Amino acid sequence: MTTFEASPGRHCHNAVSPLHASGYFAPEPTDELAALGLERGAMVYLAGRAAPLGAVDAGTVTATFYNFNHEHVQRYIPAAWSVTTPEEVLTARLRGADRMLQRLLGKETFTSTEMTEAAELALRATEACRREARPLYAANADLPVPEQPHLALWHAATLLREHRGDGHLSALTIAGLSGIEALVLHNATGTAPTSALFMRTRGWSAQQWDTARDQLRDRGLLNESGDLTQAGATLRGETEVLTDRLDAAPYDHLGPAATARLTELAGGFSRTLRAAGAFPTVHFGKG
């Protein structure tokens, strides 16, 4: 299979992103949003992530999230905004992030000088993020930066995650991959969330998943066993390289030494998150 060398920016993203992504698996953010009256599961996720956009309709959420079944989104958006407001959701998700990080990282870590340094570096990186064609990043960028260092780092991780994610959707579009096809191809690597989790959380049926897999086989991107072909690996690699290029500005702005330092600091925090069980292994792998 063709391989591509990861950029320093990708390494830094991989170190920082778990600080944001852990909120999708931890109970605290869900509990805070459910306390507002939102249904646990899809409604909590969709409202929590879309809240920076305002009280948008399902079409906007489907467009910006990319790999969700639109009919699935319509079940919960805009119904969520009849239960609570985006402003209340934003306040609740910050409370959830605070409680989550305190539990997973421990008081000594989230009050450390390393945490303050990491927050300052990550926020500096966001200074070079671009709003054009990046709706989720741009919406989050309008939010105030929390004062506490661990929440400032979480906020910066969210900005960097959504900035890269918005660029990645452009790369997927160029690659000619639909939302569900992108999920199936990602799952075929064996390092992504399981197909069962993807289907449950994104609202796709087993039949729709199988149809997308057949379409990828017809394009020569998957073999009969559902594994990546050489062409599939190449397309994924090209898509990731383009994503790196579209996401280079924050790390170019930060510079090599500071990027390496942020990678080191955030990587340590992310290892602590994983050791504390922030990412249950049952949710990852093929199948």
Question: How would you describe this protein?
Answer:
The protein has 287 residues and is an all-alpha fold. Helix content is 67%, strand content 0%. The chain has helices spanning 8-21, 27-34, 42-50, 58-65, 70-74, 80-83, 86-105, 107-110, 113-126, 135-141, 149-174, 179-187, 195-202, 206-218, 230-246, 249-254, 256-275. Helix 1 (8-21) packs parallel to helix 17 (256-275), helix 9 crosses helix 17 (256-275) and helix 10 runs antiparallel to helix 11 (149-174). The model has no long low-confidence stretch (mean pLDDT 95).
Structural class: mainly alpha
Number of helices: 17
Radius of gyration: 19 Å
How many strand elements?
A: 0
Q: How would you describe the shape?
A: globular
Largest sheet: none
Bin the strand percentage.
under 5%
Question: Runs with pLDDT <50, length 5+?
Answer: none
Which bin fits the share of residues in helices?
55-70%
Summed over residues and divided by their number, the pLDDT gives a mean of: 95
Separation, N- and C-terminal Cα atoms: 21 Å
- Topology pattern, helix = H, strand = E: HHHHHHHHHHHHHHHHH
